Amino acid sequence: ESTEIINCKEKILNLSKEISDLLKTTGGLADTLGKKVYVVGGFVRDLLLNRENFDIDFVIEGDGISFAERLNETLSGTLMTHKEFGTASITLANGSVLDIVSARREYYEYPAALPTVEKSSIWNDLFRRDFTINCMAIQINIANFGKLIDFFGGLEDIRNKRIRVLYNLSFIEDPTRIFRAIRFASRLDFEIEEQTKSFIMEAIKDHMLTKVTNDRVREEMAQIFTDKGVSKSIFLMKSFNIFTAIHSDLNITNETITKIDNLWSTIEKFHRFDNKKIDIQLLVIMQLFHSFPLNKLSEAIQKFLNNKQGIVNIQIALKEKEKVYTSLLKDDIDKYTIYSILHNHCLESLIFYYNDCTEYYIKHYIMYYMINLKNIKLKVTGRDLLNLGIQPGPIYKKILDTILKSKVMGEIYDEHDEIEYANKLYNELKEIKDV
Ligand code: CTP
């Protein structure tokens, strides 16, 4: 066990005043109670990596709940306590979440090689965690403010960009750590250390993933699929045979991974013409399943998503895909045909179609639709038709559809044109009827 003394005081003081004051206040309060207090886990990791993180986990030696109550007297956030776990959280007005836990004191049985002396409670707390980079603490009591506690070589692994577990049974004890290893490797652009990789492979071979509930798998996937590093995650999941473990027909090719990698630049293109929020998770799932057998789609998607509307949208996108592509490739296609083919599809489907296809013309027409056709709306309404003295009935839809077609084709432009055209159409239709 090695403890390199490095001090993070400067780094903390360089954070926003809000956060550095918060840490000083917390340390000061612990001082008055005669307790040691630390920030731990993701916050420390991100501090050392100079990455922003507004969620802070505190470990206090002593009762976490009563400490949180005292702390919140000064912070005036929203306090939640979880008596059964001895933990508490405070949500601040700015959205930051502080978690406060008591340092664990249970005595662990260690492998024979390790000395069986009683460890400090912060050691015990850190030893239960997943990866060395997440197993560091920084003491914030005023006298030791900023002192890094690194028992397991986390700092060195950060410097070497390595994801490493502390002990060989880590993934057996908590198989969700398999997904976490992949997520951190992609998000931080780190490598999973070789031995850790082989522990993952063993755990998967021993069917440990089947012990993770579907809900937990979906939660992990949601995090993986919405991160910019998603294509690297998918590459790693493929290399560990995780997809086939989830569904035996889900064979991810390198081509699929490249397409998922392209999604980000495609999304950026579309954002120039529509800044609606895009559901990236849906897009990734559409792309993952782009050549999946349609008859097995529904059960397979459910392994990744538990949202009815989302599942329906994905299924429609995939089932309609070939039809959309062949329709867009017909000769002599006009603006209104492009409009009719695409206007019922959600934005995610359009982005997916663009990203998935390799045909220049399909991409061109989809982009043409986005830029020139998608936002065409009629100004004329049923009320206008009523004002023209037209009797309500199926004729309304006929007239409005015909006006829309002309507008999409670029034959008429504004509300005045629309009403004039409505009147003309009505008279024509009336004449036909009168004959
Ligand atoms: N942790 C763990 N095993 C898990 C989940 C979490 O050991 N299966 C530990 C890690 O030490 C982690 C801490 O609990 O740092 C907090 O977990 P979480 O909030 O999920 O992750 P963060 O590291 O804070 O990362 P993120 O930035 O994704 O929130």
Structure description:
By secondary structure, this protein is α+β, with helices and mostly antiparallel strands. It has 22 helices and 9 strands. It has helices spanning 9-13, 17-33, 42-48, 64-75, 121-127, 154-159, 170-173, 176-188, 194-205, 214-225, 230-239, 242-246, 254-271, 280-288, 297-301, 308-328, 335-342, 347-356, 360-373, 382-387, 395-409, 415-434; strands spanning 37-40, 56-60, 78-82, 87-91, 97-102, 137-139, 147-149, 162-163, 191-192. α13 runs antiparallel to α14, α16 (308-328) packs across α18 (347-356) and α21 (395-409) packs across α22. The model is unreliable at 106-117 (pLDDT under 50). Cytidine-5'-triphosphate binds at residues 41-42, 57, 129-130, 134, 174, 176-177, 180.
pLDDT averaged over residues: 92
Helix count, DSSP H or I runs of 4 or more residues: 22
Counted up, domains total 4
Could you say what the CATH architecture of the largest domain is? 2-Layer Sandwich
Give a short account of the largest sheet.
Answer: 7 strands, mixed
Which small molecules are bound? cytidine-5'-triphosphate
Per CATH, the class of the largest domain reads Alpha Beta
Beginning-to-end CA distance, first to last residue: 99 Å
Ranges where pLDDT stays below 50 over 5 or more residues in a row are 106-117
Rounded Rg: 30 Å
The overall strand count is: 9
Task: Give helix % range.
Answer: 40-55%
Structural shape: elongated
CATH topology of the largest domain: Beta Polymerase, domain 2
State the CATH superfamily name of the largest domain.
Answer: Beta Polymerase, domain 2
Task: Record the strand order, biggest sheet.
Answer: 3-4-5-2-1-6-7
Query: Per DSSP, what share of the residues sits in E-state strands of 2 or more residues?
Result: 5-15%
Look at the helices and sheets and give the structural class.
Answer: alpha+beta
